[in-house]
Amino acid sequence: MLTGILAGITWALETVILGFALSLSPFISNEVAVALAPFVSTFLHDAASAVIMWLTCAVRGKGKELFSAFRSKEMKWLVLASAIGGPCGMTGYVLAVNYMGASVGAIASAIYPAIGSVLAFLFLKEKVRWYQWIFLCLTIAGVFGISFSPDIDISNFWLGLLGAFMCAFGWGIEGVILSKCMKDNSIKSEYALTVRQSVSALIYGIIILPVLGGWNFAAKLFVGKNSKALLFVFLAAFFATVSYLLYYKTIANLGVAKAMGLNITYTAWALVFSVAIFSDFSLLNPITVGCGIGVVVCGFLSATDLKELFDKKK
Predict the structure, then answer these.
(1) Of 33, 36, 37, 111, which sits most exposed with the smallest number of CB within 10 A?
(2) Structural contact between residues 174 and 93, judged by C-beta atoms closer than 8 angstroms
């Protein structure tokens, strides 16, 4: 459960940093840049994360184990989960952050735990008690409450909403497939993440960016003053990598439904970091503060089997 909470905290940092990167001049310099920003930033974000994971496995001497995992019978499912969670889920997430802002973009995660939990209950037969469903619904309601603030500037509500639904279905389905894959002992969480980020980056680099004509824009980010934005994208990728590792470990240990309930608490932590780092006090009002506390508490309770806990104490 601790890894689940830490996954939420580190993803909140990723959210705030990525939102700041997308507000810098290279991504808002003209209409073309604004349109390409979610796709280019996601490609660079996932590619950087993939490089971090490959280097980590190499330094730890896990290269041989990683390549042996590619021969696992579960690999085709892992690649499918990577394609859904990366290009679909992550693009939707960045669209929501880009058009709704960092804290409101966190609303993109509001539906995916419900989708993932229902799918896990139906297909993986994960045991979710009635009160855990209630706490999960309260957590999701709290996320929507956090998005309430009359002073928040949403640049394009409908594109942000489209991104939210893409993210919800992409991440929800991805979580269920990952949970199935990691039941195979050869697929460790770090190997699953390496494959996930690599597949996502390849799909973006080989298919999505060429179709959209985004390679020229991506290349310009490495030149001159534009590199400042690129550094923040890479910093966000670092925190995303840490968060994914913790999230995958939580899925392996607790199951996808409970892991998602803990991970969604990042919406509340994003509120905290937005205020602490960028002094964005427009987010603070009694509703958002109360909902933020509720999200953390209910998210924790949605992952707690109270009956099993009390039985152990007895």
Answers:
(1) 33
(2) no
Q: 204-230, pLDDT tens digit by residue?
A: 999 999 999 999 999 988 887 878 889
pLDDT in tens, 96-109: 777 776 556 655 55
Angle at 57 between CA 258 and CA 9, to 5 degrees: 35
Helices (H) then strands (E): counts for the chain:
18, 0
Q: State the Rg of the chain over Cα.
A: 19
Rounded CA gap, 288 and 231, in Å? 30
Amino acid at 85: G
Q: Give the residue from 19, 26, 23 showing the smallest Cα distance to 220.
A: 26
Locate tokens 């913790």: which residue? 246
Quick one: DSSP state of residue 64? H
**Whether the Cβ atoms of residue 109 and residue 267 lie closer than 8 Å to each other:** yes
Q: What is the DSSP letter of 24?
A: S
| Chain centre to alpha carbon of residue 216 | 27
How far apart are the C-alpha atoms of 180 and 244, rounded to whole Å? 17
**229 C-beta neighbours (distance < 10 Å), count:** 22
Q: How is 119-150 classified by DSSP, letter by letter?
A: HIIIII-----HHHHHHHHHHHHHHHHHT--T
172-204 exposure pattern, b = at least 16 Cβ within 10 A, e = fewer: bbbbbbbbbbbeeebbbbbbbbbbbbbbbbbbb
- b/e per residue, 110-123, with b = 16+ CB within 10 A? bbbbbbbbebbbee
Cα 56 → chain centroid: 20
